[in-house]
Design a protein that fits this description.
single chain, alpha+beta, two-stranded antiparallel ribbon, Peroxisomal Thiolase, Chain A, domain 1, 10-stranded mixed beta sheet, about 35% helix
């Protein structure tokens, strides 16, 4: 069986996803193209050799509509002969793009693939694609007659289920900012991030990272999702989830070059990691964000590894409660989790986050000398992806 390897991975700086954000003046196609072009430039690969561009995007409407991957590929200068496709597994979209790319390489359908992701939430606000309409339909409503809930309520339900108090969530969030700030200060993101020129200015850093964030600062924030309706329906909720211990709204893109090991050798490319094992699971759509727990168990089983074999974890910090519940169930050492900070600080540009996490995971393994890394993400609807990579 053929191996799928990661030759390189890059990401843009991550901006605040609102008017006036550092990247808000950049069209999503151009932002996405910047990451793809930088990946091609760094690896020096002939763009005509790319068999496909597989990209994740969640808000596939407006400026991210019409198979945005195709337009980003063309904007990046790839030949018209190179195809592209946009996938949507919600927050895990670009992690799923990585899976599809690697699986295609392993199967022999591809030799060279770009897996990437984009989300420009200043241009396409979260939930835009639903346009206020019922996206569930009557059959889903019949199966769940009590109704499903927004993600913020799911995060509160998880905090209640795992007895995660406000101080615990805030401590985790403050640590995320401190780790990200330290990673920037120490140059640990230098290989990951490709700066972006906007007019006379250059965006180099993640805009949402706040080095001065402390638990005291976070403790003053009000609950973000408190509502009388949900409070009456779920009286066990403690209302501990705030904007400070959740991921912000962001703009960003990332791209990963995946080939077979034979192709890399033939082209004189030096892979950074082997894509070892993959898993995707479905879980309770009410709690919604707990899929990372069974996904981790499933991918470790497929990899033939134990939790103790994993040297670095990237667990997407959609909400602090998600990662802390995952840690409580798996027993993972938090010292190995999101060591360069997570989405609470760095940001969560939805469709780009899977590729962003992979970019970070590769660097962490190289910086620490680790062999195996595990990445997992919760996704709307009660889904989760998990990936194990092996540093080469």
């Amino acid at each position: 069986m053929r191996d799928a390897v990661i030759v390189d991975a890059v990401r843009t700086p991550i901006g605040k996803g609102k008017a006036g954000g550092a990247l808000a003046g950049v069209h999503p196609v151009d932002l996405h193209a910047h990451a793809i072009r930088a990946l091609l430039d760094r690896t020096g690969i002939d763009p005509a050799l790319v068999d496909d561009v597989i990209s994740g995007a969640v808000g596939q409407i407006g400026e991210q509509s019409g198979n945005t991957a195709r337009w980003a590929a063309l904007a990046a200068g790839l030949p018209e002969s190179v195809p592209a496709v946009t996938v949507d597994r919600q927050c895990g979209s670009s992690q799923q793009a990585i899976h599809f790319a690697a699986q295609g390489v392993i199967a022999g359908a591809y030799d060279v693939v770009i897996a990437s992701g984009i989300e420009a939430m200043s241009h396409v606000p979260i939930g835009s694609q639903r346009d206020g309409r019922d996206f569930l339909g009557p059959s889903v409503a019949a199966r769940y007659p009590e109704g499903l809930v927004p993600q913020g309520i799911s995060a509160e339900l998880i905090a209640a289920e795992w007895d995660l108090g406000r101080s615990r969530l805030d401590e985790f969030a403050a640590t995320s900012h401190q780790r990200a700030a330290a990673a920037w200060r120490d140059g640990r993101f230098d290989r990951d991030v490709v700066p972006l020129k906007i007019g006379a200015d250059e965006v180099r850093f993640d805009e949402s990272v706040r080095p001065s964030t402390t638990v005291d600062v976070l403790s003053g924030l009000k609950p973000a999702f408190h509502d009388d309706y949900w409070a009456e329906r779920f009286p066990r909720i403690g209302w501990h989830v705030t904007a400070g211990n959740s991921s912000p709204i962001n703009d960003g893109a990332a791209a990963v070059l995946i080939t077979s090991s034979e192709t890399a050798q033939r082209l004189g490319l030096e892979p950074r990691a082997r894509l070892h094992s993959f898993a995707v699971v479905g879980d309770d759509p009410l709690l919604m964000l707990t899929g990372v727990i069974p996904a981790t168990a499933k991918v470790l089983d497929r990899a033939g590894l134990r939790l103790a074999d994993i040297d670095a974890f990237e667990v997407n910090e959609a909400f602090a409660s998600v990662v802390l519940a995952w840690q409580a169930e798996t027993g993972a050492d938090l010292a190995k989790v999101n060591v360069n900070g997570g989405a609470t600080a760095i940001g969560h540009p939805l469709g780009a986050s899977g590729a962003r996490l992979m970019t970070t995971l590769l660097s962490v393994l190289e910086q620490t000398g680790g062999r195996y890394g595990l990445q997992t993400m919760c996704e709307a609807g009660g889904l989760a992806n998990a990936t194990v990579v092996e540093r080469l």
